[in-house]
Write a structure and sequence with these properties.
Length: about 450
């Protein structure tokens, strides 16, 4: 039976209610919300679906927890961050790094990045003493570079405010850059066994199926109910294992499409299994509309070096090296031609500052940009943007004497005043902190070169 939330008749919680004794304030809830909101949510689940009645029986909750924990002991994946201890308990730094990375991409990719990260920054101090440039290099390709930056700033805060020791208190944890309610609960519970439930997408899915909750998981109301429910079901004594078990169940058994209820340790408590409605959950309404964008990338090659820029004012690529590019269209609407011309003028100024001959500006600028050749098109997905990238290439003749300096130079003035520029070899491009879509541009270039599609131009 599906729980419908229309016109719920909410009742005031009774002081003797067993559930009131079991709940603990979640890190992102105020005490007031805890008293009024969550118990009513739980009562609502009970009232609307008789299969959920086991929530009122403490022994059943305990059996549910035991079944899940025993399954986890036998079936957990051997992930590297689960086997690193510090003073007999999981290393909180490792939990922090792995949880931050896991918000980015799939486990298999994270394992690689995680190992590389720990080889470079084995502890909080080494991370705090590194540079953002180095951090971005190690993170390169994972996307969401802001998270890497916050991890780095967070490490500096831990060193300066907490003497290099990550605190075990969720409020103190949330005072550290990059640590929100989710990561605070994950560090506090997994590393210190503190009784806080962790709610990621896997947990939302498992809970929505267990109790047939048809609330939108992205709505505030839905999120509050799921968090309260997760907190209510948490094994307070074994919070670390329990949280990981719930997430593991969602990641390996109660998966979005190919869920395997026959292998599920909590099948006997699952309402959607009993009503064969697993596919209806979780409910995701109001999906974020995806925007479309077309950009043009200029690959400027001179003596096996590529011109790259770094512009801190560009939101998507802040502080990362990128090939020059200009936006052509947003959601089907062309950007005024003037903007493209102005960007090309700016690019021309950079080239001129490297020694590109300036005869008569408009003429030499036009002949340069006319000589770019299209080499292909790729697609890249950001969270809310689908980007089509048109790539154009030009080989500048080595008869022109350009100076390719080792250090980055800055171009001041105009709209792009915070831009730095530098010439990179292919190898340097691969090793540098560049965004994933710029990596794809480089891969396209290398593919074309390998297949000799561009013979005419090499
Ligand atoms: S029984 Fe099936 S739907 Fe229910 S929690 Fe287990 S895997 Fe998910």
């Amino acid at each position: 039976m599906v729980v419908h939330r229309a016109a719920p008749k909410r009742q005031k919680p009774e002081s003797t209610d067993i559930r009131k004794k079991r709940t603990t304030v979640h890190p992102n809830q105020t005490k007031k919300k805890q008293e009024i909101g969550d118990l009513e949510d739980l009562k609502y689940l009970l009232r609307e679906n008789k299969n959920n009645q086991w929530l009122t029986v403490e022994k059943e909750i305990s059996r549910f927890q035991q079944s899940l924990l025993q399954w986890y002991e036998k079936n957990q994946r051997k992930l590297p961050w689960r086997y690193t201890c510090m003073e007999g308990q999981p290393n909180p730094y490792h939990v922090w790094v792995s949880e931050t990375m896991l918000q980015q991409t799939k486990v298999a990719t994270v394992i690689e990045y995680y190992k590389n990260w720990l080889q470079t920054f084995p502890d909080i101090t080494s991370l705090a003493e590194s540079s953002l440039e180095r951090v971005n290099e190690i993170w390169a390709g994972l996307g969401y570079y802001r998270r890497a930056k916050l991890l780095y700033e967070g490490a500096q805060t831990v060193v300066s405010k907490f003497g290099g020791k990550i605190p075990d208190d969720v409020n103190l944890l949330q005072s550290i850059p990059g640590i929100g309610p989710y990561t605070a609960a994950a560090i506090a519970s997994i590393a210190f066994n503190r009784p806080y439930a962790v709610c990621d997408g896997n947990v939302f899915r498992v809970l929505s199926r267990l109790f047939c909750i048809d609330l939108d998981i992205s709505s505030t109301e839905g999120q509050n109910l799921f968090k309260n429910l997760a907190q209510f079901l948490l094994s307070k004594e074994r919070a670390a294992d329990y949280n990981q078990a719930m997430m593991e169940l969602g990641a390996t058994v109660c998966t979005p499409k190919n869920f395997d209820c026959e292998k599920c340790p909590v099948q006997s408590w699952c309402s959607s299994f009993q009503s064969s409605t697993q596919r209806q959950f979780p409910v995701k309404a109001n999906r974020v509309r995806q925007n479309n964008e077309e950009i043009q990338v200029y690959l400027i090659d001179y003596a096996d070096h590529f011109l790259m820029l770094k512009n801190v004012s560009r939101n998507l690529l802040g502080n990362l090296w990128h090939f020059p590019f200009v936006t052509l269209k947003r959601n089907g609407n062309c950007i005024p031609e003037d903007e493209k011309l102005s960007y090309e003028r700016y690019l021309f100024r950079i080239l001129h500052s490297c020694g590109y001959p300036l005869k008569e500006v408009d003429r030499s600028q036009r002949s340069l940009f006319d000589s770019f050749v299209p080499i292909g098109q790729i697609e890249h997905l950001f969270t809310h943007i689908k980007q089509t990238i048109h790539v154009k290439l030009v080989h500048l003749s080595t008869e022109i004497q350009l100076h390719l300096e080792e250090t980055a130079k800055r171009m001041d003035g105009g709209n792009e005043e915070s831009t730095e520029y530098k010439w990179f070899t292919e190898e340097q491009v691969e090793k540098s902190a560049i965004s994933r879509q710029m990596k794809k541009v480089m891969e396209l270039y290398q593919r074309q070169k390998k297949q000799q599609v561009l013979n005419l131009f090499f």
